[in-house]
Amino acid sequence: MITSAVRTLATELTGDDLPAYVYDLPALRTHARAVRDALPPGLELYYAAKANPAPPVLRTLAPHVTGYEVASGGEVEHVRAAVPGAPLAFGGPGKTEGELRRALTLGVERFHVESEQELRLLAGAAKDAGLDAVDVLLRVNVPLASDELGGAALAMGGRPSPFGLDPEAVQRCLPLLSGAGSRGPLRLRGIHAHLASGLDAPAQLTVAAAIADWARKLSERHGLDELTEVNVGGGMGVDYAHPDRRFDWAAYGKGMADLALRHPGRTLRIEPGRALTVYCGWYVTEVLDIKHSGGEAFAVLRGGTHHIRTPATKQHDQPFQVLPMDTTATWTRPWARPAVRKEPVTLVGQLCTPKDVLARRVRVPELRAGDRVAFAMAGAYAWNISHHDFLMHPRPGFHYLDT
Ligand SMILES: *Cc1c(COP(=O)(O)O)cnc(C)c1O
Fold first, then answer.
1. Residue 22 belongs to what H/E stretch?
2. Which residue ranges does the record assign to the Orn/DAP/Arg decarboxylase 2 C-terminal domain (predicted)?
3. Residues of the chain under the 50 pLDDT cut
4. How far is ligand 1, taken at its centre, from the CA of residue 50, in Å?
5. Residue 173 catalytic?
6. For 44-69, what is each residue's pLDDT tens digit?
7. What CATH number does the domain containing 329 carry?
């Protein structure tokens, strides 16, 4: 449900102020606090900045997270500047030598290493910088038995993947790390895995247990006393078809507390992105036109998927709420206000491509030119994954509500 602060702004903005992204920071704060409170105190919560790196979002999360997971040199610089002093974990494939050197200069706390070459590049950069204890987590494609998730689809991990290291490659990395018999500038502090996304709490717990068990076996087999951290990744599911059905953080927190008891002396860490910030953002716009074609109704909205690519990427209907605008007094055009009633309508944007669809054949009681539409769940992987410059329409406004 739309919050009253968002609704008020969404109806007060004038047409030329639209589209607009409206972020409800108090709602984000409440949600982040509830997530943190549901987790066991020893579990570390990092926010995956790529989900939404807007500085007000990063800063609102700061009191509720342990740190931030960053996945490029750009994110390292950006997050360092937005939340100075917050611990960073630098992951992501294809880190360049320049990015690694810069990250060392900026004192990045953890490196999630994705390949053997990357490990060698990091070791060289650390040596050149005169550092002797750079903390590394190896990102591993921990094998999962296919029945372990009860049929849930795995997006990553346990299958051929450009991300992370296969178990055999981990063996080859060990001699390059101190704590594993040799002495070098890199310390093996832990194992990182991000195997799947969109999982519910029971499936996430199964994955977390498999990763923690794998890390324990590796550490026991090779006497890796400094391997005390297990980062089990993000990917907590959100349901775009049912915005009110949220990830069960309470059940997940209980399960992670049990897992921690089975792994004494190890720090467990998670790094969700989407499930933290998706609910706080709204993409608000207005209906420009209503038309029929081939017997179907279309509502053409100001803006489109160049601002919110999420429904095109995920092939879903972006959830929304209609905010009816009474323009009877202000409708000055000498023709009837275009409208559609009690029939399915497809919500499209202003782009000259059939892919510019925000929601398909959805039922609304009524939709008229001039009505506002507030798309929900636009707080993650929305603006920042969109191809803004396609067709050169104006950019949306950005409003960070904080009262
Ligand atoms: C994208 C990503 C995350 C966050 O995933 P969400 O689905 O947004 O929770 C966490 N870790 C890694 C390595 C990622 O690539």
1. strand 20-24
2. 21-379
3. 153, 155-156
4. 8
5. no
6. 999 999 999 999 999 999 999 999 99
7. 2.40.37.10
